[in-house]
Amino acid sequence: MGVIIAKSLNEACVVLAENPATTVLAGGTDLMVQANRGMQSMDSVLDLSRILELKEWTLKDSEIVLGAGISYTDLAEPQIATVVPALAQAARTVGSPQIRNAGTLGGNLATASPAGDTIPVLVAMDAVLQLKSSSGNREVAITDFITGVKSNALQAGEIIQSITMPVFQGPQEFLKVGTRNAMVISVVSLALVTDYLGRKLRVGVGSVSPVPFRATEAEEFISQEFDWEKNSSLSEKVINKFSDMVADSTKPIDDHRGTADYRKHAVGILAKRALERVCANGES
Amino acid sequence: MSRVQTSDTVTKGPRIGESALRPDGIPKVKGEFVFSNDLRHPQMLWGGTLRSPHPAARIVSINTAPALKMTGVHAVLSSEDTEGMPLYGLEHPDQPVLADGVVRYQGEPVAIVAADHPENVRLALEAIEVEYELIEPLSDSKLAQEAKAIHPDGNLFRKIDLIYGNSQEDGEIIVEGTYEVGMQDQAPLGTESGMAIPSEDGGVDLFVSTQWLHADRDQVAACLNLPSEKVRLTLAGVGGAFGAREDISLHIHLCLLALRTGKPVKMSYSRTESFHGHVHRHPAQMWYRHHAKSDGTLTRIEARLLLDGGAYASTSSAVLANAACFAAGPYRVPSVQIHGAVVRTNNPPCGAMRGFGCVQVCFAHEAQMDKLAIALGMDPVELRLKNALKSGDQIITGQTITGTAPVAEVIETCAQHPTSVGAASEQMELPGGAGRTADPKNIVRGEAIAVGFKNLMFSEGFDDFSTASCQLLDGVATITCACAEVGQGFVTLAQQIAREILGVEEVILAPASTSNVGSAGSTSASRQTWMSGGAVKSACEEVRIRLLSRIAESHDLDVESLVIVDGGIASLSSNFSISLKEATIESIEVEETYRHMPTHPLDENGQGDAHVSFAFSAHRAVVDVDQELGLIKVVELITSQDVGRVLNPLQLQGQLEGGAAQGLGLAVLEEINVVDGRILNPSFTDYLLPTALDMPPVEIAALIEQPEPNAPFGAKGVGEPPAISSTAAVASAVRNATGLDLQRVPIRPTDIVFSEKSEND
User: Fold this and answer.
1) Which residues of A touch B433 (CB under 8 A)?
2) pLDDT tens for each residue of A96-130
């Protein structure tokens, strides 16, 4: 049993190459829960939390690259929040201040929970992950990265280095239902991202299927209906159809946090409200 | 003879009625307070418990041999390794120390382990081989009485048929309803923990966080087959209790392991284990029918109450008695018929929790009062005032209220208090909170008031007493009392009382233990301020009498002329004075036992003078509800409470705020989800306690100070009422906002989203 505190990404990759079974620790907000339940081996641990490269972010051209080690707290800071507001909003819904200080974007992706709060946003934005190992780098689209309930496409020896997503012009919304007003696991969540240049509304949903996904049919419908010139208000009929299409695209389950019926109902409400906020209906 | 020392240099410590800061407050905030979980001993072993994964099963075999062989393991014990009484229980023993042949709830202890390291404990627990033969669990309390007995004592803990008055006539207006309360957890932040240290006399010293040292001591000693003087309990730092620590949890297990290994053993439950390892609030199913005249006068109440006691008795029978006695609420009703039962099931055992049976019925009777107000077309406050109990009235057990009963006062002050909330200005403040789900246009607001009451102290003829001693030496008072400080404030109160009566500044509170004083009774039933406060007061008063007599005698003074002032004794009729320090070079020590007035058992009709005193409270809640998503935000909680007399304003405020938070939790969040006898959410991830975003500041409209006759300083217990009417008020406010019936708490999003509108609206 031992803990290796890596100081650089290269060092971390070397350690992981030598012992691919090593447990990778970032913020620890998911991992330690599992460890305390005896469900996670802590025989050998690689700590990424001191690697400064993982906390960096850059904005260039029409892309933002976020280091995997960026905390939820940092995601919610104005510098990043103004570029990807939905991601900041999602980060703010996570846990308590302590959890948001410790938990990281990369960790949220590695855990790959259906209820991962940032994932619907990343899915909606077609984010791409940069993975690094001692044998090289590769890029994986978010939808290919998350392969199932709490499973991901990381290969032995790989670390999530960063997440890249396009910077879109237009308002963004993230809404999450939980039974408590804060510090709660998502019962259902939805991200709506407008892309004025591409004339596209992008919708990502969480906690309504094994893997967060884009409601593509609903996106196509609403992107056609949306008034890209004047952003004038949409008819109730259009809003309701969009809401229904989003709800119909989901395959939720019953569990102790909510019923499938409720989830389907709620995701439709979230779709409606998000849409109203990004178009003129929200200003009434 | 020396001059009385004037106290310019001495800070005057708080007396009765003044805010006294808790001595443990700052250490707790700084992380320096030693909780039971912080206990350490250089030679200690760690203990652990193997629990049944099944709610109902026969144990075919237990093989501890593989665990015993493991590195670092010092002892592995199952039921066959115990020699004393195999059962324990607070009211009567029916719960096995370790399961013997059968398990009756998920989480029931089956075997215990002591090892040199927590990890070795975990591995040893995994190595114990238990073969179970599963039994279909009895999980529906409605079926319990007809079902095959799951325990030799049968499936009925207690039945009460309470009949008051003769009338069986229907009222002009009748409203009926069925109500349900889910299983709430006390969720104290400190989990069960303690340490047992074997002693040279063959006995054991147990340091544990508990609510009642002496009752624990008696149960532990019986199960260890030791005389009670060889089992010494000392209170370890308690991280909250709320009823969860009234029953035995790890106490006997720790002692068994310490005695077997000859070493100190420490045990500390994880949060998940804690959910399985202590009793909960009884889930309740209630049917009510209220009858009234068309002017709103209540004429009759019928009710059926069914409480799920879970697998073992704990305090179930007393909880049912409370549910029955207080089923009608604080109202005059000439005729009442209540059929109450508390039954055994394979669900988690239930027992004491703040409010003790009154919380469940308050939710129901207040929903009924609102329903009645609607049916009558009457203002709900007016209806409550019209029927409010007052001193001299009878409650439904036929007992006349001889003490104070300012029901109208708590209702009026609470109802009239101005509201201080406007519309939410930030999205975070709307229902859904940090999830940003709502906009102001999605929100409806509701408001409601609820009233509740409860007995103070133990009832039904229980010999309820507390013991305390006071020693005065060198001007310093030392108070010894086994009262368990669980946050209620005895640590400050004992000092305030001693200062008030003896005029001393320095007061030492000795550790609470079974070895230096008699029982203080339980820290529950809102009783310690009255009972242990009463014992301390008696002891201090007797010390004062003896001190003044001694001074009068030795200085040839008239005792009537002596007063204690400014840290000394002075004579009003001469210029004699002496400092308290000098006057008590020779110690004075007195032990007193305090009893409240006797109570009596309920008769076969649930009638009798079963209770000592009653405390009343009202809450008014304002809620915002997002009806489309079923999400709730409580935006204001206003309360008035009947307190007799305020002894420590700051501590009192804390009780009112904390109790209201717990009540709010039950109304909208907190529930142990049990399906087929299994707990689905034994963690704080999914057992949702209110956060700062869920709990508004508590606005105290009024503290009604009508001194209670016979109560020390006229003060009533204040801990439980805040948790009683708050749940009902929040639930009623959500009903008011949505127009839905909402017959169940906690109110779940689906209850709002998928409910039909009430016919009343």
Assistant:
1) 180-182
2) 999 999 999 999 999 999 999 999 999 999 999 99
- Strand partners for B215: none
Q: Which residues of B fall below an 8 Å CB-CB distance to A? A: 122, 270, 272, 431-439, 441-442, 628-631, 633, 669, 673, 680-681, 685-686, 688, 690-694, 748-750, 753-754
Alpha-carbon gap, residue B44 to B114, rounded angstroms: 10
Give the Cα separation of B150 and A109 in Å (integer).
Answer: 48
> What are the extents of the domains in chain A?
2-166, 172-283
ipTM of the complex: 0.96
Q: Does A241 touch chain B (CB under 8 A)?
A: no
Residues B306 and B453 in one domain: yes
Specify whether B618 is located in the same domain as B730.
yes
| pLDDT reading at A35 higher than 70 | yes
Those residues whose C-beta lies under 8 Å from the C-beta of residue B667, and which sit 6 or more positions away, are B634, B726, B727, B728, B730, B731, B734, B745, B746, B747
Q: Cβ of A269 and B750 within 8 Å?
A: no
**Do B514 and B615 share a domain, yes or no?**
no
* Cβ neighbours of B437 in A, within 8 Å: 175-177, 269-270, 273
pLDDT at B4 over 60: no
CB contact under 8 A, A261 and B750: yes
CA dist., res. B179 & res. B162, Å (int): 19
Consecutive H or E run containing B138: none
**DSSP structural state of residue B708:** P
On whether both B448 and B578 belong to a single domain, the answer is no
Question: Chain B closest CA to A102's CA: distance in Å?
Answer: 17
State whether B749 and A179 contact (CB < 8 Å): yes
pLDDT recorded at residue A1: 58
Which two structure tokens, joined as six digits, stand for A225? 């209906």
Q: Say yes or no: A59 contacts chain B, CB-CB below 8 A.
A: no
Chain B residues with CB inside 8 Å of A96's CB?
691
Please indicate, yes or no, if residue B251 is contained in any of the structural domains.
yes
Helical pair B380-387 and B407-416, crossing angle rounded to 10 deg: 160
Query: How near does any CA of chain A get to the CA of B3, in Å?
Result: 58
Interface test with A, best of B117, B437, B684, B694 (most A CBs within 10 A): B437
Long-range Cβ pairs for the range B197-202 (8 Å, 24+): B197/B41, B197/B258, B197/B264, B198/B258, B198/B259, B198/B261, B198/B262, B198/B263, B198/B264, B199/B230, B199/B232, B201/B230, B202/B226, B202/B230
Q: What is the CATH number of the domain that holds B529?
A: 3.30.365.10
The answer, for A269 touching chain B at a CB cutoff of 8 Å, is yes
Is residue A159's pLDDT more than 50?
Answer: yes
Residue B220 phi, psi dihedral angles, 5° rounding = -65, -45
Question: With 90 as the cut, is the pLDDT of residue A284 above it?
Answer: no
Establish if B182 belongs to a structural domain: no
Reply yes or no: is the peptide bond before residue B697 cis, omega within 30 of 0: no
Q: Shortest Cα distance from A32 to chain B (angstroms)?
A: 13
CA dihedral angle for residue B410, residue B411, residue B416, residue B421, rounded to 10 degrees: 90
Residues 6+ apart with CB under 8 A from B417: B620, B638, B640, B699, B701, B702
Domain with residue B53: its CATH number is 3.90.1170.50
- The backbone torsions φ and ψ at residue A121, rounded to the nearest 5 degrees and listed phi first, read -65, -45
Note the pLDDT tens digit of each residue in B314-341: 999 999 999 999 999 999 999 999 999 9
Judge if B657 and B571 occupy the same domain.
Answer: no
- Tell me the residue range of the domain where B505 lies: 25-33+465-595
User: Was domain A172-283 assigned CATH 3.40.50.620?
Assistant: no
| In a shared domain, residues B693 and B707 | yes
Instruction: Reply yes or no on domain A2-166 having CATH 3.30.70.360.
Output: no
